[in-house]
Amino acid sequence: MSQQGGRTTGHEDDDWWGQLYDDSTEDTGPTPATDSLDDRFASAAGTVRSASTAGDTGGAGEGVGTGAAGSVPGPRPEPPGPDGGRTDWWTSQDAPPTASPPTAPEGTVPRPRGGRAPDVTPGTHPPERHRAPWEPPSDTPPDPTNVPSGPLPPGFAERAPHGPAPSATGDHTPTKPPPAASKPPAPPSPPAPSTPPPTPPPPSPLPPPPALPPRPTPKDYVGSGPPTYDAQPTALPLADPDDLDDLVADTVLDGARYGAFALRAVSVRGDSARYRGEPRRDSLLTARFGTGDDALILVAMATGARATPGAHRAAAEVCRWIGRAVGRSHVRLAQDIRAARRGDLKSGLHRLTDRSLGRLRAGAAEQGLEPDEYAATLRCLLLPADPACRTRVFFGVGAGGLFRLRGGVWRDIEPRVGEVAGEPVVGFGSLPAETPEGDRLTMDLGITTPPNPYDPDPDPEPPREPFRFRASVARPGDTLLMCTGGLAEPLRGEPDLSAHLTGRWSGPTPPALAAFLADTQVRVKGYADDRTAAAVWEA
Predict the structure, then answer these.
(1) Are 420 and 469 in contact (CB under 8 A)?
(2) DSSP 390-410
(3) Residue pLDDT, tens place only, 203-239
(4) Which residues of 493-530 are buried (b: 16+ CB within 10 A; e: fewer)?
(5) Torsional sign, CA 214, 219, 224, 228
(6) Whose CA is closest to 280, among 292, 293, 271?
(7) What are phi and psi of 304, to 5 degrees?
(8) How far is CA 276 from CA 143, 247, 453, in A?
(9) Which one of 67, 219, 288, 325 is most buried, by most CB atoms within 10 A?
(10) HSE of 264, CA atoms in CB hemisphere, 13 A
(11) CB 322 within 8 A of CB 356
């Protein structure tokens, strides 16, 4: 038998094949070792290798040693071709793939050339073949990293420690193995401690911190007890999808600083309106007209009539109308304030107020409502931006409050009809007079014209609120507060509220917007209306 692609070894080399498959050979009977076709092929492959090694004269073979029994040597070299070169048909791309011969299973004993398996006693291991010094024992798996450093004997090729394993079905194309890489020395292992280190004792538990006294809960009300309603908004007002401009925010907050004063203004929906889902009836307008020292700041606030469906609209309209009237005349008004033309200021502001309220009454007639059903109170404050002018002008119609905090004491300076309240102020009347502090004192007697006795059927007119006017010179450290009835009534009726605001607003600097909002929202039991206020701190 000749290897595929090899030369014929002659008739004498094939005698063993006939002896192996000759029918005349007497059966040797069962043997303890396995005798399969694979075992016989492995035995034949070993015999062919021995014959090829004996016939080669070129030194070491080029086959790849597998280190296992029945390894197949590399193919024999072909004779030189016509061109003197060497032709290896198995390296050609057109050559058909050759199948890798199967290797003997681990633990099997190759049959000798005579065809008989060695006699092995059952229960014992077959005799171990002679192995080279560099080969591992048969019962130990080969270590691919244990490669000898010296030259290999003839017939063995060096195998890479991590080279690719021979394919079970692929080609066996001999390739030149890469040089063996030197294995880096393994890092020294740390010496094992003779005795384990002592375990540190567990940390002692820390003593519990001392109990702190509970922080006092800030009160959002003053007086004898908590108010009836909730402190936060509950229900939103009903909205009309076709008239969303009619919606009124729950809270409006504003502020500014000009010249020698700082302004804080706020308008908050009352507790009762928040609970019932009603809109805020108060309206607030803060506007600046002009620039520089000639600028004039207007603060206007109005309150709609109670228990009327359009109260918030009436308050907003009267604020816009008075703002438009003051804005168009702000240059003349600023000049009159700086020049102390008190008569012109009173008469001019009175006409602007009557005109704005007259338009409100005309709107009620257009809607088919009574004048009282579409009415509002109005209170305004004029503040010149000129730092050299400290005159503060108040005017308006209707209920509300005007207070001044000076030296830690609140004074009610709301001008009343027929009397003078508080410190002397600059006003207008028939007989002006000077006060020891330099203020000019006047008063409006509020005398109305009696009905004509010769008119049998006079047109009944609803009683109108008197026009209120007051102008005073502010002093450094003063705090002037103008507010609607929702805050003026609890200030007059609950001493704790005025004491609370005295402690909060007596500092050298005005509060921030958020602090001012919190101060004006301090509730008092029995007072649940909207609150609108504007405070001026004098530097």
Answers:
(1) no
(2) -EEEEEEESS-EEEEEETTEE
(3) 777 777 776 565 444 568 888 788 888 888 999 999 9
(4) ebeebbebbeeebeeeebbeeeebbebbbbbbbebbbb
(5) negative
(6) 271
(7) -75, 160
(8) 91, 15, 49
(9) 325
(10) 19
(11) yes
What's the chain's average pLDDT? 73
Cα separation of 136 and 101, whole Å? 23
This prediction's pTM: 0.56
User: In this structure, how many other beta carbons lie within 10 angstroms of the beta carbon of residue 179?
Assistant: 8
Cα angle value 525/534/352 (rounded, 5°): 120
Closest CA to 155 of 53, 289, 17, 295: 53
Angle at 136 between CA 133 and CA 138, to 5 degrees: 120
Taking CA atoms, 5 is separated from 75, 95, 176, 313, in Å, by 8, 11, 21, 112
Distance CA 188, CA 511 (A): 74
Is pLDDT larger for residue 268 or for residue 221?
Answer: 268
Structure-token match 């000077």, residue found: 434
Alpha-carbon gap, residue 362 to 7, rounded angstroms: 130
Task: Please tell me the predicted confidence (pLDDT) of residue 229.
Answer: 87
Q: Hey, what are 224's tokens? A: 């004898």
Residue with tokens 């007989």: 431
**Per-residue pLDDT tens for 342-401?**
889 999 999 999 999 999 999 999 999 888 889 999 999 999 999 999 999 999 999 999
Angstrom distance (rounded) from CA 276 to CA 285: 25
**Using CA atoms, how far apart are residues 39 and 35, in angstroms rounded to an integer?**
6
**Within 187-310, where are the H helices?**
271-276
Write out the DSSP string of 459-504.
PP-PPPPPEEEEEEE--TT-EEEEE-HHHHHHHHH-HHHHHHHHHH
Q: Using 50, 70 and 90 to split pLDDT, how confident is the model at 435?
A: very low
Q: Which two tokens mark 457?
A: 């059927």
Q: Which of 441, 483, 473 is nearest to 538 (CA)?
A: 473
Q: In whole angstroms, what is the distance from residue 313 CA to residue 304 CA? A: 8
DSSP readout, 258-288?
ETTEEEEEEEE--HHHHHHTPPP-EEEEEEE
Q: Does 3.40.50.720 match the CATH number of domain 221-238+247-448+463-538?
A: no
pLDDT at 490: 95
**Of 472, 470, 346, 481, which is closest to residue 401 (Cα–Cα)?**
481
| Strand duo 523-524 + 221-222: pairing | parallel
Reading the block at residue 363, the tokens are: 């709107």
Task: Report d(CA 328, CA 314) in Å as an integer.
Answer: 21
Residue with tokens 């729950």: 250
